[in-house]
Amino acid sequence: MKVNFVIPLRKEMKLIPLFLFLIIFTACKTSSEDGPSKTSSVSSPGNVNTIEFFLDATGTPHYLVKHNDKVVIDSSSMGFEFKGQNPFKAGFVIKKTTEKSFNETWEMPWGEQRSVINNYKELFVELEESAAPNRTLNVYFRAYDDGIGFRYEFPKQDGVDSVTILNENTQFQLTGNHLAWWNPGDWDSSEHLYYTDSLSEIDAMALKKADLAMSHIVDNSVLTPLTMRTSDGLHLAFHEANLTDYAGMTLKLGGGDYLLTSGLVGSDRLGYKVKRALPFVTPWRTIQIADKATQLIESRLIENLNEPNKIGDVSWFKPKKYVGIWWEMHLNKSTWDLASGKHGATTANAKRYIDFAAKNGITGVLVEGWNTGWEHWIGFDDRDGVFDFVTPYPDYDLKEVVRYGKEKGVELIMHNETSAAPRTYDKQLDTAYKMMKSLGIHSVKTGYVGPVLPKGEYHDGQWMVNHYQRVINKGVEYQVAIDVHEPIKPTGLRRTYPNLVSAEGARGQEFNAWASDGGNPPEHLPIVVFTRMLAGPFDFTPGIFEISLKPKPDNQVNTTLAQQLALYVVIYSPIQMAADLPENYENQPAFQFIKDVGVDWEKTVPLNGEVGDFVTIARQEKGTGNWFVGGITDENKREITVNFDFLEAGKKYEAIVYKDGAKAHYKNNPTAIDIEHFTVDKSTSKTFKLAEGGGFAISLKLIK
Ligand code: NOJ
Ligand code: CA
User: Fold this and answer.
1) Catalytically annotated residues
2) 459 alpha carbon to ligand 1 midpoint, in Å?
3) Is the CB of 510 under 6 A from ligand 1?
4) In the CATH hierarchy, which top-level class contains the domain 2-304?
5) Which atom of ligand 1 is nearest to the CA of 330?
6) How far is the CA of 476 from the centre of ligand 2 (A)?
7) What is the Cα–Cα distance from 357 to 350, expressed in whole angstroms?
8) Which atom of ligand 1 is nearest to the CA of 486?
9) Where in the chain is the domain with CATH 3.20.20.70?
10) Does 447 contact ligand 1 (Cβ within 6 A)?
């Protein structure tokens, strides 16, 4: 069996000045052996995490992970089941193992931080079946100080052109009944609440009747990122990186105590999980490992396991705050469709939002419900061919709105709701993106509400993964940044395709406006920061000031106003909405924070936090030297002390803190807010009182 690989075997150094890349390859050693094996292992550069690989007596591949010499993932087997071929399970021998070290520093065009260190040690294992037809399978293991990743490679080989995968059987054998923050492994939706249970208590099937526009739960499984804490206080977060032309992975419970097994999202229409021609690689299976919860926030493992920027210059997109014709629909004040007689996307209304944005230094305006088709979207089965992505309703003059925005320094954010009819979107993709480019529109919010058409496909399956990728590629072609709602979960592809700027992929603010379960509970975001947010930017849409939602007496936002401000720092997204109606911001001193807060960061410093309870994050704005701090709590009030020792020595900052009033409470007194001015330097320390469901936000302006 011949395997073609180019493995760097010598020291080489490359300097690419454009991206300031520093890449060091160092090959360590190569070994060949036959027959069931001894253990091969690789440790992270700081010897924090170790991966061991071995074949058991039957020749089944296994791995094990240690953190500081303690086993955190016990012996876990690996394998695949195929249509029309014997499974990959037992009978392997190791042909060769190769180790290498890698260290580079790369720059994010926008992000939580400017530069990212990507430093790992790799073990590459080449396997072959000992019996005919002697098929081959390779595994790459990468050990980082903040976690590990591994991926399979199906190399080019004689006699096998393609595989149809029915199941991937990658095990994750945990060492105890850890406490997990989970949501169900729904093939169609990541908009369930998060639950907190020990592994043995997780019951995803109990959630089958969730009140969602689409939901498909087939087994007792959970979505990733899945975060858990061991009884020793260690944190483990499971996810995947570089999900390309493959099915999304859930984690199935069962089959053994504290055992998780990869579950691939399938296609009932096609009758398989994944079909690929050889050669190909699977996404990385990732485990972030952290002694403290806040270290999960610092980890860039997911991005590091993706390839560098493939699309070149992206200076045509600028991180921005935006407002939009959006919340008014969720409040039932206006509608997306024209027929109701309450159409929101009129030329005059769009100009009103543009005026408000321009007055407040906000550079983006989203207009939903501008195009024809909204009379026939949610709740209809025959949604193919309905939405038109270039034809405005007659009361909306798209060209005039664009012109008016340009005059005021405000760019339109296009909106393309597909109603989960991707074939209709695919057909119009080129026309729609060409139109955006011709109008000078550089970003689009897409949406995929509803069960996918054709029936039998699901949001997280391979067929949809490829659709989402086609949209990203089209965005590259026409210089359009994508913000996907009802997306495939982020897996770090933003490194390779920076135009994939943001995504939903968790319960957003909108649920507060209409969910029949009372909206997002106060613990929602303190969980999301340590779960969904580990995957990438989140377009949550913060900034609701009229918390009681007067037009909807049965609904309200379950946070204080001060927490709404804190979310601009706590949640990372290069596009951040000021989601409330312009009139709700008028004469509100707290709106100053939204005007001031940055959207693109030089550095991120998580100050404290525990999953599901509270979190405080400091971020330094790129280009200004200003810092912003946001802290949020769950339903419990608490005191948080901030040591400003993250500030630069010898510098002074003018601080404004926006904090919960003495009697604030998310339920009955959410808008009580105190605003105080003070001066800080590196030696300052201050304690803030957070109300139930509360928070605080601080802007720190460098005194020059
Ligand atoms: C769901 C999105 O999450 C929401 O933001 C949008 O308003 C609706 N779809 C309509 O596209
Ligand atoms: Ca949504």
Assistant:
1) 510
2) 15
3) yes
4) mainly beta
5) 7
6) 24
7) 11
8) 3
9) 312-505
10) yes
Structure tokens at 238: 């499971």
Superfamily the domain 312-505 falls into: Aldolase class I (3.20.20.70)
Residue having the nearest C-alpha atom to atom 8 of ligand 1:
447
The position carrying tokens 């193919």 is 384
Give, using CA atoms, the residue closest to atom 6 of ligand 1.
Answer: 447
Environment of ion ligand 2 (residues, CB < 5 A): 485
On whether the CB atoms of residues 186 and 505 are closer than 8 A, the answer is: no
**pLDDT tens string 505-527:** 999 999 999 999 999 999 999 99
Tokens 């100050």 sit at which residue? Answer: 607
Residue nearest to atom 7 of ligand 1 (CA): 326
**CA–centroid distance, residue 461 to ligand 2 (Å):** 18
Mean pLDDT of the chain: 95
Tens digit of each residue's pLDDT (9 = 90 or more) over 346-379: 999 999 999 999 999 999 999 999 999 999 999 9
Q: For residue 664, what pLDDT band results from cuts at 50, 70 and 90? A: very high
Burial 172-211 (b: 16+ CB within 10 A, else e): bbbbebbbbbbbbbbbbbbbbbbbeeebeebebeebeebe
* Residue 571 near residue 533 (C-beta atoms within 8 A): yes
Nearest CA to ligand 1 atom 3: 485
Cα end-to-end span (Å), the chain: 67
In the chain, CATH 2.70.98.10 covers 2-304
Convert the pLDDT of each residue in 583-596 to its tens digit.
Answer: 999 999 999 999 99
C-alpha 195 to ligand 1 mean position (Å): 24
Contact (Cβ atoms closer than 8 angstroms) between residue 171 and residue 79:
no
Cβ neighbours, 10 Å, residue 693: 28
Cβ–ligand 1 distance for 485 under 6 Å, the answer: yes
Whether the model clears a pTM of 0.90, i.e. scores above it, the answer is yes
The closest of 208, 223, 203 to 507, measured between CA atoms, is 223
Distance CA 11, CA 633 (A): 49
